[in-house]
Amino acid sequence: MSITPLNRKFSVAPMLDWTDRHCRYFLRLFSKHTLLYTEMVTTGAIIFGKGDYLGFNTEEHPLALQLGGSDPTDMARCAVLAQERGYDEVNINVGCPSDRVKNGSFGACLMAQPDVVANCVKAMQAEVDIPVTVKCRIGIDEMDEDEDFARFIDIVAGAGCDTFIVHARKAWLQGLSPKENREIPPLNYPRVHRIKETHPELSISINGGVKTLADTKTQLESVDGVMIGREVYANPYIMANVDTEIFGDAQAKSISRREAVFKMQKYIESHIERKEDAYFKPWHVARHMLGLFQGQAGGRIWRRYLSQNGTGKSPDPELLMNALSAVEAAQRELDEYNSQRDSQSSGQKS
């Protein structure tokens, strides 16, 4: 069940092509309190698409749907569908800088149109009871002053939005790719902190550049929540201690990497047995797990085995277990080598 009200101290960012339902199920193994977000889904896909763009596993709660759009009627309609499906929050994307998003009149370009965002918030809140939130940047292009950002926040908050997740970089809508927009514009944490100081009544979460739980704790001294994206995806096991260290849950138990592999193998098998998705392959799950052994002995072997054996026309149904066996064999060899080396060193000293 979701936490009510939602505890936003730590969340995982919506990442296109990454945070799908398989990824979110995997990440949920490490933390029961972390707020997870879907990939951005456009209103057009939900309303006119043939697929089920709102599907998720019940284990994923608390879970937010991130919507891309700018038409208040369509946004409200999709918010209603999200609430009916059981989402805990609907989030408006006002941060994505890609040309495709910009051409669709949503994403970061809406930073220059706070009235449009405000109208969407009003229309959505009139139809649903779940929170309607906004994920935005600190500015775009030449709109890169505290005053510009404050004006955006004031207008959207005035429409009823009380929760903002802020990527602490501005976006250049001309000249930089989406990847470059995540790296080149400098981080400006103080601008986000100042918004929280001037609007203590708002819930402000910060996103961008935070890589560790220690960094998270530092940010929580100035804001209400921290959202991490790429670092969690590359090294998901950093979430193993989130519930105890960030949420203060003394009863939380961290799961081992080995346990996570067993649970995800069962998850894969259940999908294969149910035959709900004719195109499902173990790789659809395994690709989100490449970083599980990041920084551990056998980590490279894990990544290589999954990559080499998870794709193709005849993927290995025991992919995760066989990859784990390869990792553990490598770890045993390393332990034996270290033991022999220590024994030899001890013998030389004596």
From TrEMBL:
<feature type="site" description="Interacts with tRNA">
    <location>
        <position position="182"/>
    </location>
</feature>
<comment type="similarity">
    <text>Belongs to the Dus family. DusA subfamily.</text>
</comment>
<feature type="site" description="Interacts with tRNA; defines subfamily-specific binding signature">
    <location>
        <position position="179"/>
    </location>
</feature>
<dbReference type="InterPro" id="IPR013785">
    <property type="entry name" value="Aldolase_TIM"/>
</dbReference>
<keyword id="KW-0820">tRNA-binding</keyword>
<dbReference type="GO" id="GO:0050660">
    <property type="term" value="F:flavin adenine dinucleotide binding"/>
</dbReference>
<dbReference type="GO" id="GO:0102264">
    <property type="term" value="F:tRNA-dihydrouridine20 synthase activity"/>
</dbReference>
<feature type="coiled-coil region">
    <location>
        <begin position="320"/>
        <end position="347"/>
    </location>
</feature>
<feature type="binding site">
    <location>
        <position position="167"/>
    </location>
    <ligand>
        <name>FMN</name>
    </ligand>
</feature>
<keyword id="KW-0175">Coiled coil</keyword>
<keyword id="KW-0819">tRNA processing</keyword>
<keyword id="KW-0694">RNA-binding</keyword>
<feature type="binding site">
    <location>
        <begin position="229"/>
        <end position="230"/>
    </location>
    <ligand>
        <name>FMN</name>
    </ligand>
</feature>
<feature type="binding site">
    <location>
        <position position="66"/>
    </location>
    <ligand>
        <name>FMN</name>
    </ligand>
</feature>
<keyword id="KW-0288">FMN</keyword>
<protein>
    <recommendedName>
        <fullName>tRNA-dihydrouridine(20/20a) synthase</fullName>
        <ecNumber>1.3.1.91</ecNumber>
    </recommendedName>
</protein>
<feature type="site" description="Interacts with tRNA">
    <location>
        <position position="93"/>
    </location>
</feature>
<dbReference type="Pfam" id="PF01207">
    <property type="entry name" value="Dus"/>
</dbReference>
<feature type="binding site">
    <location>
        <begin position="207"/>
        <end position="209"/>
    </location>
    <ligand>
        <name>FMN</name>
    </ligand>
</feature>
<feature type="binding site">
    <location>
        <begin position="14"/>
        <end position="16"/>
    </location>
    <ligand>
        <name>FMN</name>
    </ligand>
</feature>
<dbReference type="InterPro" id="IPR004653">
    <property type="entry name" value="DusA"/>
</dbReference>
<comment type="function">
    <text>Catalyzes the synthesis of 5,6-dihydrouridine (D), a modified base found in the D-loop of most tRNAs, via the reduction of the C5-C6 double bond in target uridines. Specifically modifies U20 and U20a in tRNAs.</text>
</comment>
<dbReference type="GO" id="GO:0010181">
    <property type="term" value="F:FMN binding"/>
</dbReference>
<keyword id="KW-0560">Oxidoreductase</keyword>
<dbReference type="InterPro" id="IPR018517">
    <property type="entry name" value="tRNA_hU_synthase_CS"/>
</dbReference>
<keyword id="KW-0521">NADP</keyword>
<feature type="domain" description="DUS-like FMN-binding">
    <location>
        <begin position="12"/>
        <end position="323"/>
    </location>
</feature>
<feature type="site" description="Interacts with tRNA; defines subfamily-specific binding signature">
    <location>
        <position position="303"/>
    </location>
</feature>
<keyword id="KW-0285">Flavoprotein</keyword>
<feature type="active site" description="Proton donor">
    <location>
        <position position="96"/>
    </location>
</feature>
<dbReference type="InterPro" id="IPR035587">
    <property type="entry name" value="DUS-like_FMN-bd"/>
</dbReference>
<feature type="site" description="Interacts with tRNA; defines subfamily-specific binding signature">
    <location>
        <position position="300"/>
    </location>
</feature>
<dbReference type="GO" id="GO:0000049">
    <property type="term" value="F:tRNA binding"/>
</dbReference>
<feature type="binding site">
    <location>
        <position position="135"/>
    </location>
    <ligand>
        <name>FMN</name>
    </ligand>
</feature>
